[in-house]
Amino acid sequence: MAHIKRSLAKTLTWRIVASADTFLISWIITGEIYFAGAIAGIEVLTKMFLYYSHERVWERIKWGKKLREQHTTIFPHGLRIKKIFKNKKTNKKK
Fold it and tell me: Residue 75 and residue 28: Cα distance in Å, rounded?
């Protein structure tokens, strides 16, 4: 779930930057604020969906990701053994 929230946050912040860029370029090319706003408004909706989808697909691709280390124990009941030794130490102090 954290990856989904992060993807959504990145989608929204990128859209602000990208839409401002689209608005400015459209305004420069057309010379009309109305057309620039219309172009940027349509672009917000389409590209937000495309970016989010693209981000989720890349999240599933393993290429270039570092794998998390998974800790192993020598003994199959390693945690149980630790508890036994811990209990023996606390009993000696009493």
Answer: 69
Q: Say if 56 falls within a structural domain.
A: yes
Who contacts 47 (Cβ-Cβ below 8 Å, separation ≥6)? 15, 18
Return the structure tokens found at 82. Answer: 């630790």
Tell me, yes or no, whether 83 lies in a domain: no
> Which residues form the domain of 35?
1-62
pTM over 0.70: no
In a domain, 44, yes or no: yes
The C-alpha torsion from 75 through 78 and 82 to 88, rounded to 10°, is -60
36 to each of 13, 24, 66, how far by Cα in Å?
Answer: 20, 7, 42
pLDDT digits 0-9 by tens, 25-59:
999 999 999 999 999 999 888 888 888 898 889 88
